[in-house]
Amino acid sequence: MTLEIPHYGLKAYALLFSKHGVRGTFRQSALDWIISISMRKKIFALLLRAGWIMKNEDKSYSCINPSEVIKGLLEFRVPEAMKNAQKPYAFTRLSAVEIWSDFSYIQRGMEKSPYFIKILRRDMRYWKVFFKRHEIPTYMSSGATIGEFVIFIPVASLSFVEKDGFKVDRLQEAKEYARSNDIYAYAFAYIEKKYGAAV
Description:
By secondary structure, this protein is α/β, with parallel strands linked by helices.
């Protein structure tokens, strides 16, 4: 997993990579003559936490290959992050269809990966902080960006079931949503075949 980094981190990575590549190793002292000690520590902590460099057994560092770093920026993180959620939620709309169809219908790709999640209105602050901590963009009711993002659907009350480790809308809700648009016909047919027409 790779996280986005601010411009100063990107410039430091570019310098370290241009001098050492992916096979060379370096220590924090590599930036001694350029920046202050406190800034050096901040940059190394940032690059390490964001997955742009790695720490070796001898306490030296190495750059992660730039192609891996770039691909890592588009990895899916929401499912793993939701395992640590402390407030109730339910995957809804297309995300619920995706789960109930056993991912035979997938709405996401590296270029655009929306997750639709019902949350309680009173928990909005919690969820904004939760996803900010995981550096995942969020929107209210609609929105889009490159890569992975979450669309909050705030509700006054929430009901859900658990399926495959996810809290998700009940099957009937997902089925009705799948039936609402011909583009989801394959997922609707899959759900109906697996769970029966009378759900």
